[in-house]
Structure formats: C-alpha cells, structure tokens
Specification:
The chain is mainly alpha-helical and 143 residues long. The protein has one helix spanning 25-142; strands at residues 10-15, 18-23. The protein has one domain. It has a two-stranded antiparallel ribbon.
Length: 143
C-alpha cells in the first residue's frame, strides 16, 4: 500500500483495498455531516412527538374507558328506572281497575238506596191509610 501526500482540502478514502483520491471531500463530508445532524434532529423531534402522541393516546384511552363505564352504569340505571316505571304502570292499571269496580259498586248502591228511598216514601205515604184502616177496623170490632 502506498501513502499519498494530500492537501488540506483533499482526503484519502480506502475502498475495497484500493486507494481513491477525492479532492474537496472535506466539503462534501461537512455537507453530509450537516445533513446527518439535521436528520438526527428531525428523528429526535419525531420521537418526542411520538411520545407526546402516545401519552395523549393513553389519556384518551383512559377517558374512553371512563366514558364506557359511565355509559354502562347509565344503561343499568335506565333499565332499573324502566322496570320501576313498568311496575308503577302495572300498579296504576290495577288501581284503575279497583276504582272502576268501586265506582260500579257505588253506582249500584246508589241505585239500591234510591229504590229503598222510593219504597220507603211509598210506605210512608201509605202508612196513614194503613193506620186509619187498622184504627177503623179495630173500632169496628169493638162495637
């Protein structure tokens, strides 16, 4: 292998055991190093963004789980309330049936009372006649 004297702006590059000489490689090397640094900085920024997004995503997952739990609880409460409403509606229907039955019974009792009152009025009206008949019939037996 042979060493070659180079200037400051020239660099020696070994490739496949051969010596290649590129002038002004330092310029390209600096450009490449700058690009590498820029890419590493971009990668670091993307990594930070990724971590932030993962944290945000984990927060959103937790919030979603909380919301799902809340919805589940609300559905349970809703089902309980619907059951209570059905039971109360059944009780109201039963009470309505009882009220209707009692109203019919009340109406029947009013009719019976009205009939009894009419019968009593007729009896009261007939009473003086009956008393007179009894009185006169009793007097006629005495004489």
């Amino acid at each position: 292998m042979k060493l070659v004297q180079t200037t400051r702006k020239e660099t020696l590059v070994y490739f496949s055991s051969r010596l290649f000489h590129y002038p002004f490689v330092d310029f390209f090397e600096q450009d490449t190093q700058d690009r590498l640094n820029a890419e590493e900085e971009a990668r670091n920024q993307l990594s930070q963004q990724k971590r932030k997004l993962e944290q945000e995503m984990n927060g959103l997952r937790k919030e979603l789980e909380d919301l799902e739990l809340s919805v589940s609880k609300s559905e349970g409460d809703k089902n309980t309330k619907e059951h209570q409403i059905r039971c109360l509606n059944d009780e109201i229907a039963h009470q309505d049936e009882l009220i209707n039955k009692l109203n019919k019974e009340k109406k029947h009792m009013q009719e019976v009372n009205q009939k009894s009152a009419e019968d009593m009025q007729v009896s009261i009206e007939k009473l003086p006649m009956q008393i007179n008949l009894v009185f006169y019939s009793h007097q006629s037996h005495l004489t």
